[in-house]
């Protein structure tokens, strides 16, 4: 076990934060050993995956456990589907690429999303008309108190928009160690979202394939989102709000260009990035932090910024959007 370890290179914002103590685990057995250690029973613990969805505003006065449980293996298959199990420490994009290369369909629209397998069901990650709940079969997790493993069915995960049981009822109670996915051997393409269709046409793609869709998504994401290796960020900072249709129609009168997408009876999803841009924040910079020049939904650390500064900026953005549109933005990033 290491002590007073810098987490700067373990979070995509590139923020400096010291872990009181630190341990990397590469197997469920290693994790179980830590949880069963009587000397660590009362030690606060913080689970770290890819560090792509956290905002470190302070030092972490806890035992930081870095989950590096790897491995991808076939569980079973039939004529239409294949079931793959992946360790929680596998990088999400690497897993997507593995599936694309082997012709397993269902997650190609989720290409280039940062983070790990373990964080994916927690957030119910999604993009371009696809969410992870569409392909999850089961989620394995180990409980802090008992060190016992439980397998959660898709239904038990209580997936919602960027939500799951692991973010609410089970928050701080268990650690995801692996996920089993059911993927398709016969692709069902989702190309009607965003600029996928346009990008495919520009690339001269006449016959669809999951690789073509993945390549299009990667190209779009690279054109809109900064690479964390170059500019510190956590991707989309806020959730896209879902508002009552009546409220949307009233706003549409004042703002005819306001985009909206029906998500459930009586509710419309509005792009948070559009709201932030209209409130004048796109490209804003204050010293080492700011709002990205190409995508207002992304808050950035240009180098040397602090988590507290980014937190305060996010609160200013929330306040201005609330005042202008009467819409409350909720952070997708977890504040630590």
Account of the protein in words:
The chain has 336 residues and is an alpha+beta fold. It has helices at residues 28-36, 92-102, 119-123, 196-202, 210-224, 245-254, 272-278, 307-325, and strands at 2-6, 18-25, 45-48, 54-55, 60-67, 72-77, 81-87, 126-127, 130-131, 136-143, 149-153, 174-184, 232-233, 242-244, 261-264, 267-269, 285-286, 289-291, 299-301, 334-335. The chain has three domains: 2-67, Uridine Diphospho-n-acetylenolpyruvylglucosamine Reductase, domain 2 (2-Layer Sandwich); 72-184, Uridine Diphospho-n-acetylenolpyruvylglucosamine Reductase, domain 3 (2-Layer Sandwich), CATH 3.30.465.10; 232-335, UDP-N-acetylenolpyruvoylglucosamine reductase, C-terminal domain (Uridine Diphospho-n-acetylenolpyruvylglucosamine Reductase, domain 1). It is built from eight helices and 20 strands. It has a five-stranded antiparallel beta sheet with strand order 6-7-12-10-11. Strands 1-2-5-3 form a four-stranded mixed beta sheet. The longest helix is centred in the C-terminal third of the chain and has 19 residues, at 307-325. The mean pLDDT is 91.
């Amino acid at each position: 076990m290491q002590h007073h370890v810098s987490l700067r290179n373990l979070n995509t914002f590139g923020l400096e934060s010291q872990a009181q103590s630190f341990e990397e685990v590469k197997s469920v057995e290693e994790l179980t050993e830590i949880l069963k250690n009587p000397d660590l029973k009362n030690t606060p613990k913080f689970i770290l995956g890819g560090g792509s969805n956290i905002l470190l505003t302070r030092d972490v006065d806890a035992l930081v456990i870095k989950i590096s449980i790897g491995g991808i293996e076939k569980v079973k298959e039939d004529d239409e589907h294949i079931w793959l199990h992946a360790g929680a420490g596998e990088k999400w994009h690497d897993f997507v690429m593995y599936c694309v290369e082997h012709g397993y369909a269902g997650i190609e629209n989720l290409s280039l999303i940062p983070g790990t397998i373990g964080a994916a069901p927690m957030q119910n990650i999604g993009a371009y008309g696809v969410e992870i709940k569409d392909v999850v079969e089961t989620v394995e997790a180990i409980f802090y108190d008992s060190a016992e493993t439980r397998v959660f069915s898709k239904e038990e995960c209580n997936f919602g928009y960027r939500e799951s049981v692991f973010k609410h009822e089970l928050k701080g109670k268990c650690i995801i160690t692996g996920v089993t996915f059911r993927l398709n051997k016969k692709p069902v393409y989702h190309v009607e979202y965003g600029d996928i269709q346009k990008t495919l046409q520009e690339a001269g793609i006449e016959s669809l394939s999951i690789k073509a869709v993945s390549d299009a998504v990667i190209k779009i994401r690279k054109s809109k989102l900064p690479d964390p290796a170059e500019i510190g960020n956590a991707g989309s900072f806020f959730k896209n709000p879902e508002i009552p249709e009546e409220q949307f129609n009233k706003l549409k009168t004042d703002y005819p260009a306001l985009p909206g997408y029906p998500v459930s009876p009586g509710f419309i999803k509005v792009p948070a990035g559009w709201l932030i841009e209209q409130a004048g924040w796109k490209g804003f910079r204050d010293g080492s932090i700011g709002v990205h020049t190409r995508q207002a939904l992304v808050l950035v650390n240009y180098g040397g910024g602090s988590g507290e500064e980014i937190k305060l900026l996010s609160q200013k953005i929330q306040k201005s959007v609330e005042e202008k549109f009467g819409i409350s933005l909720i952070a997708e990033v977890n504040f630590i």
